[in-house]
């Protein structure tokens, strides 16, 4: 395996990205008990295939729970399907995910985990304070072709560019002034 482990302490997981092969991004995900991607989201044009190697994980795809364990068939999440997952076992879960086409999913996950390590999110993934909110909005806006967040705390996806776009531009101007 290549690549360093990227930790997200808020959602209790670590990622290891493999070298990208064509349009496929492959990653190992190690999820602590109770951890996972709890913020509902979808990928407009990316399909994800999750294979549980160790442990037990409950995926929620289109609001339907799917419990997966080592040896089960892969859980396939088609483009546009709202989803998330949680380690529902007592031990660390190891999941292999293949995303195709990858677009810039690795960039999004890397930046989101960096914000978590910097202490910019609450345990529920809510930005702490206005500066963290601006940073999260900017990332959400920049990667909207790759990941669309559908949490109740945000406007509906079709309105996000109009509502969040001005805040994202404000953050970009703030960041450019500091550079």
Compile the SSE list and pairings.
Blueprint: E1 6-8, E2 13-17, E3 25-31, E4 36-42, E5 47-54, E6 56-61, E7 64-69, E8 75-77, E9 83-87, E10 93-100, H1 105-117, H2 129-142, E11 148-149, H3 160-178
Antiparallel strand pairs: 1-2, 2-3, 3-10, 4-9, 4-11, 5-8, 5-10, 6-7, 6-9
Helix pairs in contact: 1-2, 2-3
Report on this structure.
The structure is a single chain. The chain is α+β, with helices and mostly antiparallel strands. It folds into 2 domains: 97 residues, Jelly Rolls; 73 residues, no CATH class. The strands form 2 sheets. Strands 1-2-3-10-5-8 form a 6-stranded antiparallel sheet, with helices on one face. It is globular, with a radius of gyration of 16 Å.
The CATH homologous superfamily of the largest domain is termed Jelly Rolls
Helix content: 25-40%
CATH level-3 fold name of the largest domain: Jelly Rolls
Overall pLDDT confidence: 95
Largest sheet: 6 strands, antiparallel
Instruction: Please report which band the strand proportion falls in: under 5%, 5-15%, 15-25%, 25-35%, 35-45% or over 45%.
Output: 25-35%
Any idea what the radius of gyration is?
Answer: 16 Å
Strand order across the biggest sheet? 1-2-3-10-5-8
CATH architecture of the largest domain: Sandwich
SSE run: EEEEEEEEEEHHEH
| CATH class division of the largest domain | Mainly Beta
Which structural class fits the helix and strand makeup?
alpha+beta
Distance from N terminus to C terminus (CA atoms, Å) equals 35 Å
What is the count of β-strands? 11
Low-confidence segments, given as residue ranges, are none
């Amino acid at each position: 395996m290549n690549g360093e482990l990227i930790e997200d302490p808020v959602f209790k997981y670590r990622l290891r990205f493999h070298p990208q092969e064509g349009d496929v991004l492959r990653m190992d995900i190690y999820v602590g008990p109770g951890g996972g991607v709890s913020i509902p989201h979808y990928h407009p044009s990316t399909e994800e295939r999750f294979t549980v190697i160790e442990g037990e994980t409950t995926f929620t795809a289109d609001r339907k729970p799917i419990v997966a364990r080592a040896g089960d068939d892969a859980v396939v999440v088609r483009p546009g399907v709202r989803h998330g997952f949680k380690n529902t076992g007592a031990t660390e879960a190891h999941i292999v995910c293949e995303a195709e086409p990858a677009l810039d999913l690795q960039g999004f996950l890397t930046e989101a985990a960096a914000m978590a390590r910097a202490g910019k999110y609450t345990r529920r993934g809510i930005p702490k304070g206005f500066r963290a909110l601006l940073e999260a909005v900017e990332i959400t806006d920049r990667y909207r072709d790759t990941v669309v967040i559908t949490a109740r705390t945000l406007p509906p996806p079709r309105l996000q560019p109009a509502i969040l776009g001005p805040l994202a531009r404000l953050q970009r101007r703030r960041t450019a002034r500091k550079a």
